[in-house]
Amino acid sequence: MGGDASLLALVDPPVAGAPRALVLLLHGLGGSSEREGLRRMGLSLQAAGFTVWRLNLRGAGPGRPLAPGTYAARCDSDLLPVLELAQQRAGGLPLFGVGISLGGTMLLNACLASPGVLSGVVCTSSPLDLALCSQQIELPRNRVYQRWLLRRLCAQTLADPFGVSDAERQALQGPERPRSIRSFDAAITAPRWGYASVDDYYREASPLPRLLSASVDLPPSLLLHSLDDPWVPASGAQLLAQQHLAGLDVVLTAHGGHNGFHGVGDEPLSCWGDQLVASWLKRQL
Fold this sequence. Notes:
single chain, alpha/beta, seven-stranded mixed beta sheet, 7 strands, 41% helix, globular, disordered N terminus
């Protein structure tokens, strides 16, 4: 994509034959197009006959030099132009979106903001209520993970070739530097995206309330979530499963962790969750 784009897409063609559709594949918080789970999903989709665009969101991976700042759970101003471009490049083929973790949250928000931008959307282990997710990540059992993720987020932010403000640098490196994802979002994400506070950001960027609205207009959608996900609560997906919304398929599994979904007999470089996503997308055709 263009040199001044806020996102970078790496294009992977289908393994064989003409493409069935174009799939945009989005990574999660602290991730990039090169993360193992994203690459694994992409390989399964290529094998199923899809062209895959692996996106690097603003400030992530190879896209770091292309634009200042970092992404958020609701970044419609970045994502919607990319979806429009992808529709043009799809050449009349269906355009699907698959988001892993926070990537799925972004896709849901984009679909709610602009109905019709996708022919279908898949969210695996995606936060639907950001405040609840923040609370769960702060549980004692997740202390090591949160510390690791915070290091990635702070490093990603400080590595901005366009620079960071003195206030942001002090917030990230000073004595009051973030000790939780919530404090990072309060210092960096919320103000960068124009929210009055972290609570305002979590409220406005959480798709669950809008999904529960009677007026919601979504494309065919799949939510895949594990009940034992240690980082993202399954309660939102469970609530939606009880609503029996038209066009919304919710798959809940007892085990799978956060985008794990491995099982005995899985193919090399794949897992049953990836295969389920590929099969669901083929059914939409």
